Amino acid sequence: MEKGSFISRLFTLIGLVLLQVLFLNRINLFGYVTPLFYIWMIARFDSSMSRTSILLWAFFLGLSIDIFSGTPGLNAAAATLVAMFQPGIVKLFVPLDRHDVLLPCSASMGGRQFAGYLLLITALHHTVYFILLSIPLGDWTVLVLKVVFSTLLTFLFMLVAESVTGRSVPKH
Question: Which of 10, 21, 65, 100 stands 20 to 30 A from 58 (CA)?
């Protein structure tokens, strides 16, 4: 890994942890909806990263959130699980004949494919997170409401972030 990309990822991790812990964890709409925006970093890992690197970054991202949120391992578990499937999920939304390094974004994947990718990553993360949070499983209705509406809010935040940051892909 290049030193510059390590430093960039480290600053991204710190920024997302601060954003999540200081601001987003305080949002709890109607008792069901909490955006877990930190998974944006996992969704944006490029295809040049090794699986081990992806898993380690996701684990430490989730663990950092857990340390400051008082959630013993919930974010680390959900983030690591999503990171394990992230490369395969990216492949579901890109053409099979692509062999270049892929940076998951709307510019490289196309708007619809990227939105579908983000929605699937977010739904997977939130499902795992809220199931772990709800153990022992009690009211399924509340669990489903939390998963669905938190997924939608996080997804909307990520679409806004994509439109604001919108990585451009070099033209060949």
Answer: 100
- Show me where the domains of the chain are located: 3-165
Residue 140, both tokens: 């399924």
- Given pLDDT bands bounded at 50, 70 and 90, which one contains residue 110? confident
From CA 52, how far away is CA 39, in angstroms rounded? Answer: 17
Q: What is the mean pLDDT of residues 112-132?
A: 95
The candidate with the shortest Cα–Cα distance to 18, out of 68, 56, 63, 60, is 68
Q: What's the pTM value of the predicted model, to 2 decimals?
A: 0.88
**Statement: 3-165 belongs to CATH 1.10.1760:** yes
Q: Residue 79: which of 13, 164, 143 has the closest Cα?
A: 13
Question: Residue 166: what pLDDT?
Answer: 63
Q: Which residue would you say has higher pLDDT here, 139 or 85? A: 85
Gap between the terminal Cα atoms of the chain: 24
Tell me the one-letter amino acid at 64: S
